[in-house]
Design goal:
Layout: E1 2-8, H1 9-17, E2 22-23, E3 29-32, H2 35-42, E4 51-59, E5 70-73, E6 87-90, E7 95-104, E8 107-115, H3 117-132, H4 138-148, H5 152-164, H6 166-169, H7 173-186, H8 190-205, H9 212-228, H10 232-242
Parallel strand pairs: 4-8
Antiparallel strand pairs: 1-4, 2-7, 3-6, 5-6, 7-8
Helix pairs in contact: 3-4, 4-5, 4-7, 5-7, 7-8, 7-9, 8-9, 9-10
Length: 243
Amino acid sequence: MYRGMKLTSDQIDQFKENKSKLVSINGFLTTTTFRLTALNQAMKPSKRTDLMPVLLEIQCNLEQVSNNVIVADCIHCNELLNEEQQEIIFDLNVAFRLESMRMEEDMWMIKMSASNAGQLIKEKYIKDSHRQMEDISIRILFGRLMCDMGQWDQSQHFFEHLLNNSNSYNEDLVKLECSLGEVLQWKGEWNEARKYYDRAYDRIMNLKSTRIKDSANILFNIGEILYREGKYEEARDYYERAF
């Protein structure tokens, strides 16, 4: 399969640094089985002058790769499709092993092979995390996985959706608000993060059952925010309360 695109020199350098390693691509990846179509995509004119044309060549055995990796094989969807419209779409679980890179006629040629490793890593993460935190739902673990992968916007939207539909999903509001606070903290949106931490902490204080671990984590995270804001004395107070 092939995919034509344009990348900056920094993005190309990131590919170089990961040669022979597994790489992931944030979002769905649409590819075509026709090289010429991908070449035309890569060579499309752009107003930006800092972009270079790139052709991805992806090796993928459709019989061996897990169904979790392939979203759709449009070649078989409709016999009336012409050749240029035939596509293979990979989903978020896919990982690619970067095999080689070379420059050819002012275009970067990047060879990769599709792997099930992304799905296996995700499953292992959820199993390991679930063993450590048995009181956390699979949905919240999945949102935290996205956060750990650096997909902060996706994680934030996912948690906001769960929070807005908490009655339907029957999720723990304290865990949701705390998780959303952590995502916002990673994004550097400290004021918004603090709001969710405060809500979660107030919710704990109003519960009949004690949740020492959850309250300690929230207090520690608030201390981290205060420390980064230069409020060291106030931060120390929250650290001491957490411990």
